[in-house]
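Quick one, T. Sequence first:
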Amino acid sequence: MRNLFLGYYKPTGEEVHKLWKDAHIVLDANALLNIYSYSKQTRDTAINVLENIKDRLWLPHQFASEYQKNRLFRISQETKNIADVKTKIQNLLNNEIKSLRKHPFLAEVQVQQLHKICEALENAEKQHEQLLTDDPFQEKVAEIFNNKVGCSPNESEKNELHNDGKFRYQNRIPPGYCDYNEKNEEANTYGDYIGWRQVINHSKDKKVDIILVTDDFKEDWWLKAMGKRVGPRPELINEFNAESEGRTVHIHSVSSFLSKASGIFAIEISEEVIEEARAPDAEDTYSKKKLVRPKKSEADTPKNSSSYDGAERKLGKAERYPDGPKTTNVTEEG
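Structure tokens:
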């Protein structure tokens, strides 16, 4: 029975061991773009991990293209996020805390700490904006993935992929259908499906299993129950196995991947880094539970990370991560 419904079961210990020993590791565009949303410590750690495992990495042409097309947008977005946090604190200082008599329990030293936070954010904003014209991280990524990017499809292949993608999105076949624009067909790029298909083809051609790392948390990638991600969509696991002639895919969020990579590859990764990279929407229980499809309900409908209170998240990370808050923006092309 297990072999007929692979997507509903967690991998065995033997399968996990083999996968992490031999599988090719693939990052989607979201995972790569998050480099620009992390603090310096987490960004440096993520790049160090990629450098240590670069012999195992491979990148579909679609995901590489989305990274390049959305890089400047992500940098601009994060620069604006930093500026927004700085403005909120400045307004607080100027309008609410200007007179200590309004806040008799707020010591002067505490007010000065807020001023220092503003100064740190000012510096971080300038540094982040400089990435628009001088981006050392782009060069790092290019070096790490040198000769590790798949080929671009030709026009005939593109047309076939787009036709398949349209059918799948209209019929809500994962992945990617949450991005479907019914009102403007020309706006649909079918990026998630095209990238997914390229991963399957690579697995089949090279006869390798795949570890796929993504920070796309929409329902067309992940199964949720009681507000928690319990694992990838079973349809994805089953399709991959069938289309790759028996190969296996294991899908991880960035935080889950870093947590496991730390022990398996003997790379020092702090809990603080793993926590910053953790998805804000729900606990990942994939490694703990059997996958069970929940009944469809509004409460269980996944929300992507941009649906959370942006102001609260930004202010919560402003002091701890002066390089800017981590966000996931669903308007990036993909």
